[in-house]
Amino acid sequence: MGNAHLSLQPLVASARLRKILGVTAEGTTLRKVIPESDNCLAADSSINWVNGEVVQDVWLRLCDVDSGDIELKIKLINLPSAAPSK
Q1: pLDDT: is 31 or 84 the higher one?
Q2: Number of domains in the chain
Q3: Which pLDDT score is estimated for 78?
Q4: Which H or E run includes 9?
Q5: What DSSP element (H or E) covers 86?
Q6: Residue 1 domain flag
Q7: Rg of the chain's alpha carbons, rounded to an integer?
Q8: Among residues 77, 71, 59, which one has the least CA distance to residue 11?
Q9: Do 64 and 5 touch, CB atoms closer than 8 A?
Q10: What Cα–Cα distance (Å) separates residue 33 from each residue in 17, 24, 47?
Q11: pLDDT of 77 higher than 70
């Protein structure tokens, strides 16, 4: 079984940028992440504003195996703040 890693920092930074710029246009590409030696991306990955959510489509190449890829769709959601405990 292989492994792969993915930094969530670009996804979080894109969500902050969308909020600061007030992006509301459906399908807006907020950022593109390219394959580099420090990530496991098999192809360019776009971070988009879709249906009111920040979404990243990712294709990762598995490490420590002869071959293998995994395709992911990651959505950043805002959870409501919990009420402070008394």
Answers
A1: 31
A2: 1
A3: 74
A4: helix 9-21
A5: none
A6: no
A7: 15
A8: 77
A9: no
A10: 15, 21, 8
A11: yes
